[in-house]
Specification:
With about 350 residues, the chain is of the alpha+beta class. It has 2 domains: about 160 residues, 2-Layer Sandwich (D-amino Acid Aminotransferase, Chain A, domain 1), CATH 3.30.470.10; about 170 residues, D-amino Acid Aminotransferase, Chain A, domain 2. Strands 1, 2, 3, 4, 5, 6, 7, 8, 9 and 19 form a 10-stranded mixed β-sheet that branches. Strands 10, 11, 12, 13, 14, 15, 16, 17 and 18 form a 9-stranded mixed β-sheet that branches. Helix 2 packs across helix 3. The longest helix has 16 residues. The model has no long low-confidence stretch (mean pLDDT about 95). The structure holds pyridoxal-5'-phosphate and 2-OXO-4-methylpentanoic acid (COI). Pyridoxal-5'-phosphate binds next to helix 5 and strand 16.
Length: about 350
């Protein structure tokens, strides 16, 4: 399929890197493609960034058939543009599509479309360390129809956003809050898919967490309300004695690309790492015995984010001394060295945009 390109008449200027924040600055162009039952995915286009005209009856607005991804492009010191594990994101998106009854797409085609878009938007990739171009591929159901079924038509689009740190705290440890009342997802449901409703379902607890001064929610499993699952926008790791622990994938947790990267680096370095059920009690007990050395989250937006405090009911534990832990920093440094092209050992996780 040929991708039609229409350039914006006027192009804007990227704000200063220090003013970027997360997800507020959008670039001049976007990629759009449509799906219909008779044509399949068709009409791929790079167009000026603009609003969509969509029927108020579009099924996405009513029944939430929407999936998305989050990945990043980085500019190296040599001015090369690097994508980190982008194919893995699109493969996960296809799994989300399947789970949400959305038609799948050709990953190679979308990789090419993304590279084409990024080349056009090169000036929007910030270069300061900690900044990047966040990429948000999305698919929404567009049939104007009020009955409940899978839509017959969809829109796939990719928008780009120049970003700085996800958390205002930057690399300083964040405080997380365990929800006792609410759950994010249940085994057998859609928790492992990156679908809009999972985030909508998480809002009530995150608002409560924020009111108490916590950055995000640490979710427990929905059945026993005992086992740790993940954080709002990150997977979670615990360093207990000399072992790294992370919850195993049960179907209700998002299988993070950064999570896989951490696990594979840890194995490569010969660290002890286990993916298994971890109860919140086990973590609080490990803390009481002085065995809980570090806690950190992993995610595209957050990279590696040290956790300095966990609250569960009326008990809060502090982890570390208010500075990022050594192991969290080792992962952070290695991942960012790979992403910003400061090392040749990139684990085959980099695709250069030429
Ligand atoms: N868990 C949730 C709920 C997320 O939204 C994200 C971010 O995408 C992650 C975990 C981390 O996934 P990844 O490392 O692929 O960004
Ligand atoms: C990520 O891309 O890392 C995310 O968690 C997306 C988030 C901002 C919802």
């Amino acid at each position: 399929m040929e991708i039609k390109v229409t350039r914006a008449e006027t192009e804007r200027i990227r704000p200063e890197d220090s003013d970027l924040g997360f997800g507020q600055v959008f670039t001049d162009h976007m990629f759009v493609m449509d799906y219909s039952q008779d044509k399949g995915w068709h009409n791929p286009e790079i167009t000026p960034y603009t609003d969509f005209a969509i029927s108020p009856a579009a099924m996405v607005f009513h029944y939430g058939q929407a999936i998305f991804e989050g990945l990043k492009a980085y500019k190296t010191a040599e001015k090369k543009i690097q994508l980190f594990r982008a194919r893995d994101n699109f493969e996960r998106m296809n799994r989300s599509a399947k789970g949400m009854c959305i038609p799948q797409f050709d990953v190679d085609f979308i990789m090419d479309a993304l590279k084409k878009l990024i080349k056009i938007e090169e000036k929007w990739i910030p270069e300061t360390i900690g900044t990047s171009l966040y990429i948000r591929p999305t698919i929404i159901a567009t049939d104007p129809f009020l009955g409940v079924r899978a839509s017959f038509s969809y829109k796939f689009y990719i928008i780009l956003s120049s970003v700085g740190a996800y958390y205002a705290e930057g690399l300083n440890p964040v405080k997380i809050w365990v929800s006792k009342e609410h759950v994010r997802a249940v085994k057998g449901g859609v928790g492992e898919f990156k679908t809009a409703g999972n985030y909508a379902a998480s809002l009530i607890a995150s608002e409560e967490a924020k009111e108490d001064g916590y950055a995000q929610v640490l979710w427990l499993d929905a059945i026993e309300r005992k086992y740790i699952e993940e954080v709002g926008a990150m997977n979670i790791f615990f360093v207990v004695d000399d072992e790294i622990l992370t919850p195993n994938l049960t179907g209700s947790i998002l299988p993070g690309i950064t999570r896989y990267s951490v696990i594979s680096l840890a194995k490569k370095w010969g660290m002890k790492i286990s993916e298994r059920k971890i109860s919140i009690d086990e973590i609080f007990k490990a803390h009481d015995k002085g065995k809980l050395k570090e806690v950190f989250g992993s995610g595209t937006a957050a990279v590696i984010s040290p956790v300095g405090e966990i609250r569960y009911g009326d008990k809060a534990i502090s982890i570390g001394d208010g500075t990022p832990g050594e192991i969290a920093m080792k992962f952070y440094d290695t991942l960012t060295d790979i992403q910003y092209g400061r090392t040749r050992e990139s684990e085959n996780w980099i695709e250069v945009v030429e």
